[in-house]
Design brief:
With 466 residues, this protein is an all-alpha fold. It has 3 domains: 186 residues, MFS general substrate transporter like domains (Growth Hormone, Chain: A, Up-down Bundle), CATH 1.20.1250; 55 residues; 210 residues, Growth Hormone, Chain: A. The protein has 20 helices and no strands.
Length: 466
Amino acid sequence: MNNKGLSKHLQPLIVATAFFMENLDGTVITTALPQMAITFGISAIDASIGITSYLITLAIFIPISGWLADRFGSRLIFGSAIGIFTFASALCALSQGIEEFVAARILQGIGGAMMVPVGRLIVLRTTPKTELAKTIALITWPGLAAPIIGPPLGGFLTTYFSWQWVFILNIPLGLIGILLVSRFIRNDGEKEHRPLDWLGFALTGITLATIISALESITNSGITPDIGYYVLLALVLCIIATRHAKKHVSPILDFSILRIPSFGVTVMSGSFVRILIGVTPFLAPLMFQIGFGYSPFESGLLLLAAMLGNLGLKPMTPYLLRLFGFRNILIINVTISAAAAILCGLLSSNTNVILICIVMFIYGTSRSMQFTCLQTLAFVDVPNDKMSGANTLFSTITQLSQGIGVSVAAVLLQFCMLLRGENTSTPTAIDFQATFIAIGLLMLLSLFSFRKLDPNTGSIVSGHTQ
């Protein structure tokens, strides 16, 4: 195989590794917060600013990733992003105070904001439509596995080594990634010299930062009177940013792409599903520990069954798409995902561990299939000249939906505690169970949108026609 052929096959693997590194970093840190707080001489709640600052930075800089890739070339931006992320990881490990740590996390967020969207853009630009499903499946599963591997890995490293190893882990991965990018990622051809929409970038960044701040506040402190001000400000800014985007010749976020039926339905309804499916890695460990009395390590091991589900279905994805088509798969799979959430709500401390693992496995398989289908179908009808804008919009909404998911879980959990009528700040098993059942029922609402898709939508990728 010549170097060009080898490059073509290695590109998705290189991007998948970057996806894994970024997603792992976002989840592994949570278990290290208590030890980091001791090092910095602050409370664990105050140490969570390291997570918040990272998420806000992602929200601000993801929208500009597409413009940078078009202007300077995706290989340069992708390799630079990995370099920035790796360097910032080293700074995080070397931090002696919370101020240094937050500054390092902001720098790390800038790298992460470029790394994932531009990596996906490289794959979208170099992969034929007929091979898109297989390639998207390859780059998706490491990102799906990371939130499940993260908590137990973070607990292991923090317990038996130190919290610094959570970030040191990124350094060899990043250095290998930079080497592989320089050798196997091809240079872009003609660069686009369109002007940067500075006002749109500012409006979008402030809007997304406000939304993420509100979501983090809800997650950490619950619904308070101050949340209303956040919501009102975010709504006003969102209206202003959207109107600006519609008038600008080359907006930072091109909402006109939502008019493409497969992209619009997949992104909007898909984000609703992503929000609900994505709460399980956050909610399940809490239910296992607080509600059922499992140790953090034991709850982490139970989630590994979901990872096996993630991995097990990937090789079958192209075959199932060819057999049923995107529309039918989305309808069937969202029903299975809803059933898995409801089954989580029927678990208890007396449930056999094997049965819990089976439920987690079902959740993992449905999560894997849904995310792969959504990420593939979103781009099947997008023309090449709109691919960068579509990828940027998709990445921005996806990042926002991940933050919303955790907040939705927190709000539903608090609502269930309120309905129970007990004056306590600690949820019980029944609160978690009711929350999971509510999530499963809400998930079924997306069926109405998916049913509107044409049965032959995405047939050029799936090979399914009827």
